[in-house]
């Protein structure tokens, strides 16, 4: 059965989103961010881009973050509410971060992902992120479980192939609106 694409708006995260973003994270992340961490990130727009995808009821149905380290952009999260997954929201959020990295004049992007996170790995590969190594026991969950991380890179954010992939992802998901370029 064809499921209608929910109406979604990409916009910068604001302080009022913090509670709802944490609640969303608790649904999809084994070790959700703390409120303090989110607030600290919001206080640093020079080095952090925080986006939310806002659903029809005005609350976040997804969020994503990019942290600038020297001339690299580190994707520190992409998360979508389970009831809104597979509607292109994760792709649009990641495309917005990739555009933001270019707008900031960064050269490369990187991220870590759990080795067993097939959905996220498929998403990143679709954008051209390539695996470059493993960080053993990188994730330590509250229950003590450890999981290895795969490290992914895009070494040149100005590579025309990467740029066109990002733009195609954004265009294919054109039903998702963007406000303020979706950027902070
Ligand atoms: C990873 C995640 C953000 C993807 O969000 P999404 O909005 O569902 O992603 P999209 O709809 O844009 O999917 C884009 C592509 O990613 C891949 N993908 C997404 N979910 C997938 C799944 N469950 N299994 C396999 N591939 C998947 C597919 O290639 C998909 O394209 P398609 O739907 O045309 O086949 C979402 O699954 C999520 O929030 N997971 C939990 C949080 C998380 O693990 N975040 C990443 C931490 S590093």
Structure description:
The protein has 184 residues and is of the alpha+beta class. The chain has one domain (9-182): Aminopeptidase, CATH 3.40.630. It has helices spanning 18-28, 35-42, 89-103, 118-126, 160-172, and strands at residues 9-12, 48-54, 60-69, 72-80, 108-114, 130-140, 146-154, 177-178. The chain has an 8-stranded mixed beta sheet, with helices on both faces. α3 (89-103) links the parallel β4 (72-80) and β5 (108-114). It is globular and about 35 Å long. The N and C termini lie far apart (37 Å). Mean pLDDT is 91; it is low at 1-5. Residues 28-29, 78-80, 85-91, 113, 117-120, 122-123, 126 line the site of coenzyme A.
Care to give the gist of this entry?
The chain has helices at 18-28, 35-42, 89-103, 118-126, 160-172, and strands at residues 9-12, 48-54, 60-69, 72-80, 108-114, 130-140, 146-154, 177-178.
CATH topology: Aminopeptidase
Question: Percent of residues in helical segments?
Answer: 25-40%
Sequence stretches where pLDDT stays below 50 over 5 or more residues: 1-5
CATH architecture label: 3-Layer(aba) Sandwich
Name the bound molecules.
coenzyme A
Q: CATH superfamily, called what? A: Gcn5-related N-acetyltransferase (GNAT)
Number of domains: 1
CATH first level: which class? Alpha Beta
Multimeric status of the protein: single chain
Count up the helices. 5
- Element order, helices and strands? EHHEEEHEHEEHE
N-to-C CA distance = 37 Å
